Amino acid sequence: MSNRYAVVLAAGQGTRMKSKLYKVLHSVCGKPMVQHVLDHVSSLDVQEIVTVVGHGAEKVQAELGSVSRFALQSEQLGTAHAVMQAEELLEGKTGTTLVICGDTPLIKPETMQALIQQHEEQGAKASVLTAHIENPTGYGRIIRNEQGYVEKIVEHKDATEKEREVREINTGTYCFDNEALFSALKKVSNDNAQGEYYLPDVIGILKSEGEIVSAYQTDDFEETLGVNDRVALSQAESIMKERINTAHMRNGVTLIDPANTYIESDVVIGQDTIIYPGTTIKAGSKIGSDCIIGPNTEIANCVVGDASSICQSVAHDSVIGSKVTIGPFAHIRPQSQLSDNVKVGNFVEIKKASLGHGSKASHLSYLGDAEIGAGVNVGCGSITVNYDGKNKFLTKIEDGVFVGCNSNLIAPVTIGEGAYIAAGSTITDDVPGNALSIARARQVNKENYASKLNYNK
Ligand code: UD1
Ligand code: MG
Q: Which residues are catalytic?
């Protein structure tokens, strides 16, 4: 195996997206499209990856981190010019260089690998990944000679009527002999419809110099989609979504209605978990086995243990244990921690709060900035009063506490282990362990008062 390198093209603004966000940073299933490309490329055996950045260079670099080195293309003069910017980092190296666009997130690593393999086996100087598609409008066309060998690639805007009839397109993914690539790039001109230096011209240049040029055709036309506008972005989203859902189902997860289940990239879900329709599971989430999720639930960046159920609820940036039940209609906000066997029922909001093993808040509560121990029962309508209009304060509820219905716990305050708060109390001072605390006006019954008012006459 020869040395292998990769160049990812990500410098364009993406005018056709009509967006403030640089094209390659638009997400497909929760991950920027260029990150998909980079993840795919990094899963191959490549020694070095160079990403060419330009528009939004700093943002793209910050997003991609250290997997790749970066070359700056300060003026976007075309894809060939973009690859030239990587010359300094790859100059004089021998081996194979894979070049791929940052806007083709669906090209699978297996396909890249097959392209590289064919390229090396045939001893080619350049190989292009092609596909047959029904509507090739906008793509570069593969022009073959009478013997069927690739002669050149013609961009849609430069193509003749006859060339436009060709349905075999350039996917924008190529393999080159590294040295041949950089020497051919110097011969590319910008004498074309867009006044740009086209990378596909390298194929024609090498061919005319008598070098071996090959094409590898993928039969999965869905892979080849180049995302240039929002319509293609939505198509990429739906293809990627189907791939992700299929992979989860193959791994033993039941999706009741895959078409209405939205699972972002890199989410992990255990076997025998069942996901009901209308559910979105966003990036960074890890769901255990035997859970029941949904319907109509949103989980983002949460870890969920085994055998938990989350119904018609929203949970963000939190850790949820095993055998936890949440919902319907609960909201778990960031930095919450629910231990095993916790129950959070309807219309309960939890924010930056921890609930210990088996604790329950079954109905209509707000628990924010709170440390709640194990075996605590928070009665219906109880609230940790954490905010005085300026600052947030902590409520501590120790193990085994019973908070009666409709209590206000005005933070900062601590309720000692095993204490009992009478329903309707407004607690302003710490309560010692095992105490009963009643903080409400005494009831006064005025005998026969109602009849004196003569309401019934
Ligand atoms: C390109 C190909 C076309 C192919 C299609 C596949 C050229 C000239 N055409 O067209 O044959 O069918 O991809 O999707 O290559 N970029 C830079 N710097 C530049 C210009 C572009 O880094 O100066 C980057 C863009 O960020 C993008 C990629 O290169 O990620 C491709 O550019 P784009 O403008 O999308 O080319 P297409 O018109 O799609
Ligand atoms: Mg494109």
A: 363
Question: Which part of the chain is CATH 3.90.550.10?
Answer: 4-224
Q: What are the angstrom distances between the C-alpha of 60 and each of 5, 34, 106, 301, 324? A: 20, 9, 19, 22, 39
**Predicted confidence (pLDDT) per residue in 170-203, tens digit:** 999 999 999 999 999 999 999 999 999 999 999 9
Ligand nearest to the Cα of 155, by number: 1
pLDDT of residue 189: 97
Q: Which CATH number fits domain 4-224: 3.40.50.2300, 2.60.40.10, 3.30.300.20, 3.90.550.10?
A: 3.90.550.10
As beta bridge partners, residue 319 has 303, 337
pLDDT at position 114 is 97
Span 83-140, pLDDT tens digits: 999 999 999 999 999 999 999 999 999 999 999 999 999 999 999 999 999 999 999 9
**Tens of pLDDT, residues 231-286:** 999 999 999 999 999 999 999 999 999 999 999 999 999 999 999 999 999 999 99
Q: Please name the helix (run of DSSP H) or strand (run of DSSP E) that holds residue 164, with its range, or none.
A: helix 161-164
Answer for the pair 204, 85: CB distance below 8 angstroms, yes or no: no
> Is the CB of 154 inside a 6 Å radius of any atom of ligand 1?
no
In the chain, which residues fall in CATH 2.160.10.10? 251-437
Distance of CA 221 from the midpoint of ligand 2 (Å): 15
What integer is the mean pLDDT of 148-173? 96
Cα 234 to its chain centre, rounded Å, is: 15
379 lines ligand 1 (CB under 6 A): no
Rounded Cα distance, 257 and 372, in Å? 37
In angstroms, what is the span from residue 2 Cα to ligand 1's centroid? 27
Give, using CA atoms, the residue closest to atom 8 of ligand 1.
198
Q: Does domain 251-437 have CATH number 2.160.10.10?
A: yes
Question: Could you say which ligand is closest to the alpha carbon of residue 169?
Answer: 1
- 136 in contact with ligand 1, CB cutoff 6 A: no
DSSP for 100-124, written as a single string: EETT-TT--HHHHHHHHHHHHHTT-
Residue whose CA is at the smallest distance from ligand 1 atom 9? 140
